[in-house]
Design a protein that fits this description.
homodimer, 336 residues, alpha/beta, 2 domains, six-stranded mixed sheet, 15 strands, Stage V sporulation protein AD (chains A, B), SpoVAD_sf (chains A, B), Thiolase-like (chains A, B), SpoVAD (chains A, B)
């Protein structure tokens, strides 16, 4: 049963089970601190395809294939797939998932996609729409850079606040009943825009949305950061994380001791030259599927909040002088 | 309660009520056969904004505002908004809905968006996630043409199979209980790709997906086209509609007497020079909100299927030699 708690949080009383998950990454992700936890990494940015866009589709396909294999599932046993990515018209999802023949609910949530897809998949299970769904998200450094910023060959200098788009994707399979971590609460965020216009400072653009969703969640559930083993944000990076502490601090919410940002977990900022950290739908998707859910399976984490954040800009909106609206969706997951 | 019927159809036993709806259109839409049924039309393609992209955001904002006004609702009474459009990174939705402060579930379903957003909004109501949700979709001829095809100033010749992207948007407000038409069944479609590569023939690319979803729906529910007053497809246009009849004919399903395509309703093909018909998320969204739901309110239609179809391509995927995958989502609506 699903019940609204407080103003904007959904409580899932049974709680769909995370049955399986898989993370796929690239070379830099393999060389990062979580490298060994990925299910599959490829040192070639093309993943054997002719273009980077096709490579990103291959990442989604591989992530779904591996998540199904790990749970010994046939694709016919998945009733709906929720997916999105950063590419224009979300072609990584459309082409990557084309062959599965599973009804698709296409999403656009920028880098918040993994939380959005997992939330909708969980709601479909809890409400009886389906017995098993998959949630997918991906990004690719090479497709994102050339689409959002500059041709890679141009070799543009990156600013200190810039983040490095993760090459990777994650897939979570959620089902009714069974063993595994359970999705307990969901808070969908609203668009928050404090007027940041610097497209090289996504963390700052997304932090206000992150603060808003977290604040609403804590209010709705009457909990505090101390009640959780981990509060994982999507890809705020160093700059965005500090801003998040500052914004929540104004409301006397002290996140820091329990907070980790996926953008700061995926790469080693000291040695991997990623400036303010990682970003992209694939950042939170891979950190969730390679690391966080493994830590839950190993009993190291029991009660976590996973909140992915998205910057809802496009090169066109920036060129037209618009600021960068942010959004953040939150999922509360507990060990069985 | 939501129950799976057959392989892929969801039956909503209570059935969320369509409380309000509004359609916003441009000059060509105003001049078309449904012109008088729109809630608002503007003869200026900019809708008073500085760019066409901002104009499309203004369309979404206006559609939501009017739908709320018509039902005397405050924006705070809408718990979730489901929205999408055709622009890169769905900026029409992000910027158009920014000021409402309503939690947003961002979607990408290409021209299938209106059915996708209405489906998810209905599922949220039926499952108890919310008491009231809004579903929105839009497109704009000028933003779509320059993004997908050629600069407008280039004056490129259009092929006979080409369709004319609708300038407009629709918003449907769905709620628990009350008076109004009810959403009874939902069928989410899977990606279907029969290898069409002509980006000027979207109808042909989407027809196989339309056939697949309709066939599944009829099988799942044990109904036939004759059981409905109207079967409205999104924007197959003339070419796609004929292909749809042919494809369903192979399975002895004869759609023609009850079928109308939104792409053939919005404009007068004889006088408005739109070649194979209208297209775009705004096509099915405006025909639903300006015409179909009004006809239901007037007692002229009692039992309808609304199925929007999407072509999941991007200029990049076409440039890389990819074919055009299609998708179609279906909503069954009955008068109270």
């Amino acid at each position: 049963m699903i019940e609204k708690v407080g103003k904007s949080t959904l409580a899932l009383s049974e709680g769909p089970t995370i049955q399986s998950y898989a993370a796929v990454g690239g070379k830099k992700e393999q060389e990062g601190p979580l490298g060994r936890e990925f299910d599959f990494t490829d040192t070639d940015t093309t993943f054997g395809e002719k273009t980077w866009e096709k490579a990103e589709s291959a990442i989604q396909k591989k992530a779904v294939t591996l998540a199904l294999e790990k749970a010994k599932l046939d694709k016919k046993e998945v009733e709906y797939i929720f997916a999105g990515d950063l590419l224009n018209q979300c072609i990584a999802s459309s082409f990557g998932l084309r062959e599965f023949g599973i009804p698709l609910v296409g999403l656009y949530g920028a880098c918040s996609t993994m939380a959005e897809s997992l939330s909708l998949a969980s709601i479909f299970i809890e409400s009886g729409c389906a017995a098993r769904c998959a949630a997918v998200a991906s990004s690719h450094f090479c497709t994102a850079e050339r689409q959002y910023r500059l041709p890679l060959a141009y070799g543009g200098q990156r600013t200190p606040t810039a983040q490095w788009t993760a090459t990777g994707g994650g897939c979570v399979v959620v089902q009714k009943g069974g063993a595994g971590p359970r999705v307990r609460h969901i808070t969908f965020g609203k668009i928050v825009d404090l007027g940041i216009t610097d497209a090289n400072n996504m963390g700052a653009a997304m932090a206000p949305a992150a603060a808003d969703t977290l604040k609403n969640y804590f209010e709705d559930t009457g909990t505090t950061p101390g009640d959780y083993d981990l509060i994982a944000t999507g890809d705020l990076g160093q700059v965005g994380s500090e801003l998040l502490y500052e914004l929540l601090g104004m409301d006397k919410i002290h996140l820091q001791p329990r907070h980790k940002d996926c953008g700061l977990l995926l790469f080693d900022r000291q040695t991997q030259d990623v400036h303010a950290g990682a970003s992209g739908c694939g950042c939170s998707a891979t950190v969730l599927c390679a690391h966080i859910l493994r830590q839950m399976a190993a009993g190291k984490l029991r009660d976590i909040l996973f909140m992915a954040t998205g910057a809802l800009l496009s090169p066109t909106s920036s060129a037209q002088g618009e600021s960068i609206p942010g959004i953040a969706h939150l999922v509360h997951i507990t060990a069985e």
